[in-house]
Amino acid sequence: MRSPGIVPFTSAWIALRVVLSASALGACQREQPPLPPAAAAPASKPAEPATFVGRETCARCHEAQVALWRGSDHDLAMQEATGETVLGHFGGARFTHFGVTSSFFKKDGTFFARTDGPDGAMHDYPIAYTFGVRPLQQYLIALPRGRLQALNVAWDSRPKREGGQRWFHLAPDEAVEHDDILHWTGPYQNWNFMCAECHSTNVQKNYRASDDSYATTWSELAVSCEACHGPGSRHVAWASGGAATGSAEAALEGFVFRLVPEQKPAWTVDAQTGLPRRLPAGGSVSELETCARCHARRSVVAPYQHGRPLLDSYRPALLTEQLYFADGQLEEEVYEYGSFLQSRMYAHGVSCTDCHDAHSLRVRGGEQGVCLQCHPAERFDTPAHHHHRAEARGSRCVECHMPARTYMVVDARRDHSLRVPRPDLTVKIGTPNACNGCHAKRSAQWAASAALRWWGPRTPSRPHYGEALHAGREGLPGAEQALSALAVDAETPAIVRATALQLLRQQLGPASLPVVKRALSDREALVRHGALLALEGAPPPYRVPLAAPLLGDAVRTVRLTAARILAAAPREGLPPQQRKALAAGIAEYQESLRVDADRAEAHLNLGVLHQDLGELPAAEADYLAALRLSPRYPRTYVNLADLYRAQGRDDESERVLRQGLAVTPRNADVLHALGLLRVRQRRMAEAVEALRQASELAPDNARYAYVLGVALHSTGAREEGLATLRRAQARHPGDPDIRTAVEQFAVER
Question: ∠403-405-406 over CA atoms, to 5°?
Fold first, then answer.
């Protein structure tokens, strides 16, 4: 249960020895010019590090920029709760959600919320800060041990005519009890970890594990100038004539990296196609990655350093299930970066500030005008192109190319992949499309036929990468071949190729391993990261010769992934230099996890690492620490029980799983683990019942269905076992274990 599905060791893997020794496998990418550097290193180490000076200092010279910034979402990201900043009605308003009635009032100049606390009782809580302004405003409440928590009853700040000016709950359709991890007092509403870095400037979390407390600090209570540009003291010195003459930092006007390009880009439009071209070619990597720090779904791997590559500090999410639809459209709240990386705009050099003013954050030219900056109105803003009446909703560029999805009940976010609507993909793989987003009563086939009728040969004919990703997710026949082809396609966005490689983890075999090997030397760090994730599908001994060289990768996320997947691999065959590199990589990975030592997930991953390294007491300690931080996190119970099982401590394993079911009674993972324990105990009737519940609760989990089918067959319920496996095969036609079991059990009838 600990690892993400290791492929069984079969004779097919013996053939990999030949593949691993092949010398003809080089990088699959055509030669490309290097990307602009994300940072320029100073010629010599400064005597003192740069410090934050505050926006008032910046405003002395940059009045126009600060004036644009004032009132922006960055300026108002977080504010002290005052009569001027609080938008919600605190005049005795009441709001009831699943039996809990919260009230909002003001007393002696302080705003209060009376609501259920961590003990389930009602308490009066003073509001410390406001959080955001539009289309909703949340409120932060100070709890003991330095915690700030975001109340999940929020104020809808939209105008009343749009349904706003009301209190509402961020989980409107479900009860959130006081001991639920989604309760406002729980870990997922904790400002110190979840929100602070992207709503203020120079945030230092300062978590103390010794007493589970925070002493979080910040320079400014907003996303201010230096949040993006970096600490400004050396820039101030440069502007005052005090910077070191001739130094690299002086050439950058006192900053450690150049956020604004030296040469302002210009755009030309091809007269025949109407399509724009950027001069000079290539966008600003520094700008995009500065924005992506907060406008990406990502996890932290190291404290942020301005100007360093994004993957040195963060691990961006790939296009994984539940976050993105198979074709890359946003599904969960993923922000903009992962979508934008898929776009043709990004591929052709468009960057954030081509569309958004860097300081006011307003869209340049308005929602329609921003597109017409580069796409001529006479060609694109016409019924001949969009096939809608001029005043209709469908005539607006964003409705077709940037459809919105609503999060937090009222917050509509536009998809930044800027894609062509593909109702034909809806027909093929069930992904949404912009056409049916408006024409909800019509079928996807109707929309696909209309698109073909309107655009004819111009309708995209090239297979969409969503088809391969869908095949990989579903384990369909041919998935390995489709994912392999996608992974080596130089015209495909790097984030898509990395996702294809990650999906190969479940399909990996001798046919696809050469593709993974090539991808390990790809120029894109995200692709190298994806290739390492694919190697998790190989037995540990086979990972070593491929992954070990990446322990010295220039990008931290890649190094950490290499160290993580090699932790359980044998080290006997490693030369001394690589053995030393692995030890250093594992130490760096441990340090990375401890950045978020306030989170159960970090301790869970530390426990897995210690278990891989054979350090079982340390693994147990981290699993127990994870449970202390978040007793309702089910995966920890499964891993701790597995650790006890490996040590022959089945009684303790059962106790832990029982504890897990007590707090998460309908969790499929815990039930499946309990079923496996019952199998080992030869209590087969109880085993089958637990395995059945797990499979019913997680119907898309092929492994759970397979284990249930085999258990039924082995207990004498052969027909039911075979029927279970056949239903699973219909749902997962490419799963080799299910296919083999069906063939074997069918013969035995």
Answer: 145
Tell me the C-alpha distance between 239 and 255, whole Å: 11
- b/e 209-248 (16+ beta carbons within 10 angstroms → b): eeeebbebebbbebbbbbbbbbbbbbbbbbeeeebbeebe
**Half-sphere exposure (Cβ direction) of 465: Cα atoms closer than 13 Å:** 27
| Rounded (10°) CA dihedral 590, 594, 600, 606 | 10
Cis amide prior to 135 (ω within 30 degrees):
yes
Residue among 166, 158, 207 at smallest CA distance from 187? 207
Rounded to an integer, what distance in angstroms lies between the CA atom of residue 618 and that of residue 597? 15
Tell me the pLDDT tens digit for each residue of 650-709.
999 999 999 999 999 999 999 999 999 999 999 999 999 999 999 999 998 999 999 999
- The burial class, CB within 10 Å (0-12 / 13-18 / 19+), for 306 is buried
> What is the pLDDT confidence band of residue 575, given thresholds at 50, 70 and 90?
confident
Q: What whole-number distance in Å separates Cα of residue 360 and Cα of residue 301? A: 30
Question: CA–CA separation, 636 vs 642, rounded Å?
Answer: 10
Q: Per this entry, what is the length of the chain?
A: 749
**Which residue type, as a one-letter code, is found at position 316?**
P
Within 13 Å, how many C-alpha atoms sit on residue 358's CB side? Answer: 17
Cis peptide before 280 (omega within 30 of 0): yes
pLDDT of 188 higher than 60: yes
Say if residues 301 and 593 touch (Cβ distance below 8 Å). Answer: no
Instruction: Kindly tell me the sign of the dihedral angle through the C-alpha atoms of 336, 481, 502, 322.
Output: positive
Q: What are the pLDDT digits (tens) for 504-524?
A: 998 898 899 999 999 999 999
Contact 267, 277 (CB under 8 A): yes
